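Retry 2 of 3 after timeout on previous attempt. Resubmitting structure tokens to design endpoint.
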């Protein structure tokens, strides 16, 4: 929907006000003052001003609603599944809550302490988009094992001994969503860290991603 320029509204406000004041003064300066005509003119002018304001507010609300409906609504979720004592399957899910297709460019920075870990898939580096159908989710995943960590000269066994060290394995995620419309969505960078081993109250062990605040 086309947006009504606020300057145009102010122009018509000023025009109506000036014309009303002019004819009101002219009416009082005449020999036979017609109070009914002057009152009708003032009421008509006020009615026009109210209608102009209503039209502007209605148009603005309609455009806000349209922009909201055309803005992508995308969420992501990290999961982990222990496949073996030294290997995890890391899930990366994208949920598109929009009623239209969205291209999501995902950028992931995975680090083991200060060493960058390269995920062997360019969809995690913004080079290829994730094609998200309307109201659907797309599942991606990669394996976390000694082979992935070899650039850091560390092993899963070693990191497990660190327990809940927030620097052992961290991930920064940012997403840029584009559509066929002109409205895009930039999801700011979000940081997580991986807990390799946490003892729960019932004595069981848990592992997974935790959001850094």
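Retry 2 succeeded. Sequence:
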């Amino acid at each position: 929907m086309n947006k009504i320029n606020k300057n145009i509204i102010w122009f018509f406000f000023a025009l109506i006000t000036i014309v009303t004041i002019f004819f009101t003064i002219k009416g009082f300066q005449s020999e036979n003052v017609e109070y009914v005509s002057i009152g009708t003119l003032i009421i008509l002018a006020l009615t026009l001003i109210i209608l102009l304001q209503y039209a502007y507010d209605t148009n603005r609300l309609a455009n806000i609603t349209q922009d909201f409906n055309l803005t992508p609504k995308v969420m992501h979720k990290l999961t982990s599944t222990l496949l073996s004592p030294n290997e995890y399957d890391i899930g990366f899910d994208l949920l598109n809550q929009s009623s239209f297709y969205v291209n999501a460019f995902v950028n992931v920075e995975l680090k083991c302490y200060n060493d960058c870990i390269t995920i062997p898939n360019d969809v995690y580096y913004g080079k290829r988009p994730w094609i998200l159908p309307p109201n659907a989710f797309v599942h991606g995943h990669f394996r976390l094992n000694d082979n992935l960590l070899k650039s850091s000269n560390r092993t899963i066994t070693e990191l497990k001994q660190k327990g809940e060290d927030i620097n052992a394995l961290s991930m920064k995620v940012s997403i840029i969503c584009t559509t066929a419309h002109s409205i895009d969505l930039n999801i700011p960078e979000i940081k997580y860290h991986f807990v390799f081993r946490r003892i729960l109250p019932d004595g069981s062990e848990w592992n997974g991603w935790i959001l850094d605040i």
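Attempt log closed. The helical segments are 6-29, 35-70, 156-160.
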